[in-house]
Design a protein that fits this description.
The chain is an all-beta fold. The protein is built from no helices and 24 strands. About 0% of the residues lie in helices and about 55% in strands.
Length: about 325
């Protein structure tokens, strides 16, 4: 999992299973073949990649191509997908749909503990998880100024995509009739948003993550050319993981999790499913809602004439 191969950026993403999984010492028959010492790597072990993931990278707003969030309210659903990158002011920015209503705010980057947005002239702070609680700052946009405040740390947010602990909540006051509350979670990004207008409160919560797909496997219509079951992400995982699968046509299918003895653990979906790119999440519970034991599990996508399976690791 690289940041962005389209611009030859082969740095690992924070979700890559290659982070901290290398070895710093390898001895064979009393011959030391490899010995890497701190500070040549960060955290517990070297990364299995060309570059080490820098420790100042924050986990609360992951950025890489063709990933995003799907959030839903009682009224509608919205998708926020990273579609492109560009260099502005000598820095790499990621492009996505306008983040806030009525504003042109769609170019983002991570800078240490801060998430910055390009306001047309420079990068300005949108979120900052490194400041003390109740710290405020002013964001100047193309339609005026607004005040952003870090209002809470440590909230637990329950979503269809999983439960997220220790979230950071930011309040953005635009005016007397328009304000937001955004909750950011490690390994989840934006997991909940409250939009408050003169009409009242509308709450959006995360229902799924969107992960990169193989663009070459699609035709011009945007429909997959074949059935594909992708590796769950993240893996290993705790507390939840996302499973993406591609279907080229409408049809019957099932997505079921099994243990290593072949016993059914959880039915994620069964029935008719439309063509397109889909994802399902699993939070480590069985069909009765009980938490399963840590270990290796099999998930299988199956339908008329096809069956694909992959392994995943649940940690506790």
């Amino acid at each position: 999992l690289f940041d962005d191969t389209s611009i030859v950026n082969y740095s690992l993403t924070i979700h890559s299973p290659c982070v901290d999984t290398g070895t710093s010492l390898f001895v064979l028959e009393d011959d030391t073949l490899l010995q890497i010492s701190q500070p040549d790597y960060y955290d517990d072990a070297p990364d299995m990649g060309t570059y080490e993931l820098l420790p100042e990278s924050i986990n609360y707003f992951f950025l890489n191509m063709n990933t995003g969030w799907v959030l839903a309210s009682d009224f509608d659903t919205t998708e926020i997908i990273i579609t492109d990158t560009t260099i502005l002011g000598g820095e790499l920015y990621y492009r996505m749909p306008d983040w806030y209503t009525y504003e042109i705010m769609n170019l983002f980057r991570v800078d240490g503990n801060q998430v910055k947005v390009w306001n047309g002239e420079s990068g300005v702070i949108l979120y900052d998880i490194g400041v003390p609680l109740n710290t405020s700052w002013i964001y100047n946009s193309d339609v005026g100024s607004s005040q952003i405040t870090l209002v809470s740390i440590g909230d637990t947010i329950e979503t269809l995509a999983g439960t997220y602990d220790n979230t950071y909540c930011f309040h953005r006051f635009i005016g007397a009739d328009y304000e937001y509350y955004d909750w950011l979670a490690e390994d989840g990004g934006l997991v909940q948003r409250d939009v408050i207008t003169f009409a009242g409160l509308r709450r959006y919560t995360l229902i799924a993550h969107i992960y990169a797909v193989d663009i070459e496997a699609n035709d011009a219509s945007g429909i997959p050319n074949g059935i594909q079951l992708w590796q769950n992400y993240p893996n290993p995982f705790n507390p939840s993981t996302s499973i993406q699968f591609d279907l080229p046509s409408l049809g019957e299918m099932s997505l079921i999790i099994y243990d290593l003895q072949g016993r059914e653990v959880k039915v994620l979906y069964t029935g008719e499913h439309p063509a397109g790119f889909h994802s399902a999440s699993w939070n480590g519970n069985d069909g009765q809602g009980n938490s399963v034991a840590a270990g290796i599990y099999i998930y299988r996508l199956q339908g008329p004439g096809f069956s694909q399976s992959r392994k995943m690791v649940y940690l506790k």
